[in-house]
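A student in our group prepared the protein record below, which I am reviewing. Here is the record exactly as it was handed to me.
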Amino acid sequence: MLDSVAHDLKSRLELGQPGFTIVDVRDRNIYNTGHITGAVPIPLTDLASRAKTAFHSKREIFVYGENDDQAAQATQMLKEAGFAYVCEIKGGLSAWKAVGGATVGV
């Protein structure tokens, strides 16, 4: 089954509604080999501190990682850091590609 979050995000981008940020918490070397177009690379270890300076607390943030556990951990970290709307992209890059989302390098 396709991830509905990935599908919804792709639809929003196609409709010109980009009022959100996609964060890739995978290792930078993995990010460099391929990622969701427009995704911001922030390693999990730096996530809480960097997100506070980079994003408004009301910003919609969608997170993906190497696996769903890593994405869930990142989501929890952002919520604990005070971000109001955080959601993980279950299935990560694979789910994004499965719905035809734009990627770089893959």
User: Anything to note?
Assistant: The beta strands are 20-24, 35-36, 40-41, 60-64, 85-88, 103-104. The CA atoms of residues 57 and 76 lie 14 Å apart. The longest strand covers residues 20-24.
